[in-house]
Amino acid sequence: MADTAASPAHASPVETDAVVIGAGPVGLFQVFQLGLQGIAAHLVDALPHLGGQCAELYPDKPIYDIPGTTVCTGRELVDQLTAQIAPFKPTPHLGAQVARLEPQTDGRLLLGLSNGVTLLARTVFIAAGVGAFVPRTVKADGIDPLVGSQVFYHPADVSAATGKHVIVHGGDEAAVRAAIEAADVASRVTLLHRRDVFQAQESDLAQLQSLRDAGRIRVLAAQITGVETDAAGRLVALHVMDANGDAQREPLDLLLVYLGISPRLGPVADWGFAIERKQLVVDTATFATSQPGIYAVGDINTYPGKRKLILCGFHEATLAAFAAAEYLTGAPVALQYTTTSTRLHERLGVEHH
Ligand SMILES: Cc1cc2nc3c(=O)[nH]c(=O)nc-3n(C[C@H](O)[C@H](O)[C@H](O)COP(=O)(O)OP(=O)(O)OC[C@H]3O[C@@H](n4cnc5c(N)ncnc54)[C@H](O)[C@@H]3O)c2cc1C
Question: Ligand 1 in contact with 287 (CB < 6 A)?
């Protein structure tokens, strides 16, 4: 899939027939079913990559209950779903959280994304799972304005550390890998974690130890208590408290934070839907919410007998797409088979046999 759509912040809204919120397995299949109905979609996810829980929580674990697939890993399922939606070319907005969802007087729906992009949609499909996967942040006064310039949460690579004095903050695999990679490019690397104990693969821990022995990575067991900026507002030092309770000042150019990624329901709870135990109540004929034009599929919805399974989400997405097609055209939509329908073959870009 193409890179994240780059629309200038605060430009006029991008108009579209459909927006899918959440690129987990159900959101991806929603794009597919909309494509079969001839509806092009924008696809938004807080994560910088596709796949939701499958990609974030269990990429290498096996799944055995996808119909017709004996076994596949979380990552393999995401790869298959991504290939399946390729003909429909959804417009991706990755690394962006939907912060606002507001019905307009004409019945359309205005979505405000955390990256400043706004979308004006005729239908919205909430496939938000257990919430937006967002990085855990450092709680320290004055740190927020530095995010994006000298403070980065879970950056995809450490190229920003080139030639800099960098502090990598965290204790898991991602933090250890970032410190190892930064040691190749940065002028100085400190790995800051509350304890001198790290959770990572044996090979990474061994590499970390040899870089420590060579003096290329320094480990600091401490907690951040504050940030120090200069007159121009630039970050110049962290204030930390070490394991003995002593305060220290740690100069730096750049802070890379890897404190893990966790789901937060966040704004979905504030959009005015009928909600039961943090899930959106839907009509099982259409998977419509209490708000016209808005559907909810996958782990985020609830109805009598609901099971949080991927295959149930696939069924929900299918019926939601039919319902949305009827909502958009105002006419009944006939069932067609992908095996035999010329129109579906055209939409899929496959040869008719
Ligand atoms: C360890 C584990 C093993 C599992 N094994 C199985 C199994 O074997 N079989 C099975 O059927 N199911 C299994 N499941 C459950 C399955 O993963 C879920 O049912 C499935 O992921 C739900 O898909 P979804 O698309 O609804 O939501 P998710 O996969 O949760 O994806 C939702 C996406 O929406 C994004 N999002 C949410 N809110 C916003 C917002 N406001 N703005 C932008 N993005 C947002 C999130 O970042 C996320 O990427 C397992 C789950 C776990 C944790």
Answer: no
